[in-house]
Design brief:
Blueprint: E1 3-7, H1 12-23, E2 27-32, H2 35-44, E3 49-53, H3 59-72, E4 78-81, H4 94-122, E5 124-130, H5 143-165, E6 169-177, H6 196-208, E7 213-216, H7 218-229, H8 232-235
Parallel strand pairs: 1-2, 1-4, 2-3, 4-5, 5-6, 6-7
Bound molecules: NADP nicotinamide-adenine-dinucleotide phosphate.
Length: 239
């Protein structure tokens, strides 16, 4: 039976991915800080699942807990990391900037580290990380958020290069969503906010096709193309 771990399974995209993978027969490891939500999710799933408290901002403990979860499941075939945070932070409040870097950069990198080492040992596997279309350009409204996602996109490319050089059968998929209707995307003036089930369905189809980089939903692929090419002065008008 196929096995997968989702870090950040307690809500939003991670939760929706858990439901899809369970319906496809996966045994699941569900990790996040809000374990009560993980238990609620567990009760809704049709396949066996394991729950683990992981706070990626406390890296040493998170590394231990993630490694323990992999051992308890006797290894896994797929690891999806959706954990992330971000703030609209035009005044550059340092606590918010730091928290975003702690979670999205240090925390997620620590989890990638364990995931890749597990797949090297096992000889095969698929790592899926949710970055964002925000990785493509800077943002005056959420500078740390966009920068942390750019870091992740670059880091994952580096890991793919490493894997290719080492001739390993490991897939690394960088999912870059546009706006998805979750707690993270609450606010004024948002456009093209996509239902989370639709985004999760498209993410699953990109995973099956072993994509290196994928924009979801499809219309956000078009936005990504535009974002890559617009001059910086147009970014000044955006929040
Ligand atoms: N929604 C969008 O429009 C959008 C667009 C592009 C990219 N994304 C990315 O998609 C990913 C999932 O976000 P979402 O939209 O599904 O929002 P969400 O519902 O707020 O989910 C965020 C997830 O991250 C987990 N998380 C946050 N801090 C954590 C920590 N310190 N340790 C472990 N887990 C932590 C949360 O779990 P706990 O709080 O229980 O720990 C939760 O499961 C994020 O990386 C986000 O940047 C979202």
């Amino acid at each position: 039976m196929k096995k997968a771990i989702i870090i950040g399974a307690s809500s939003g995209i991670g939760r929706a991915m858990a439901k899809i993978l369970s319906s496809e027969g996966y045994i699941l490891g569900l990790a996040a800080r809000r374990t009560k939500l993980l238990t609620e999710l567990q009760n809704e799933l049709g396949t066996r699942s394991y729950i683990k408290y992981i706070d990626v901002s406390a890296q040493e403990e998170a590394i231990k807990s993630f490694s323990d979860l992999i051992d308890e499941m006797s290894g896994v075939d797929m690891i999806i990391i959706t954990s992330g945070n971000g703030y609209i932070n035009p005044l550059l409040d340092w606590e918010k900037e730091k928290s975003t870097i702690d979670v999205n950069v240090s925390g997620v990198t620590a989890m990638i580290n364990i995931a890749i080492k597990h797949f090297y040992k096992k000889g095969t596997g698929q790592l899926v990380v949710i970055s964002s279309v925000a990785a493509l350009r800077g943002s005056g409204g959420a500078p740390a958020y966009n920068a942390t996602k750019a870091y992740l996109a670059n880091y994952l490319e580096g890991i793919r290069c490493r894997i290719k050089k080492d001739k390993k059968d490991i897939t690394v998929t960088d999912i870059r969503p546009g706006l998805v209707d979750t707690d993270m995307a609450k606010g004024e003036g948002l456009f093209w906010v996509q239902p989370v089930e639709k985004a999760a369905g498209q993410i699953y189809s990109k995973i099956l096709r072993k994509k290196k980089i994928a924009y979801v939903t499809k219309r956000w692929g078009a936005v990504a193309f535009l974002l890559k090419h617009i001059p910086e002065k147009l970014l000044y008008k955006m929040e």
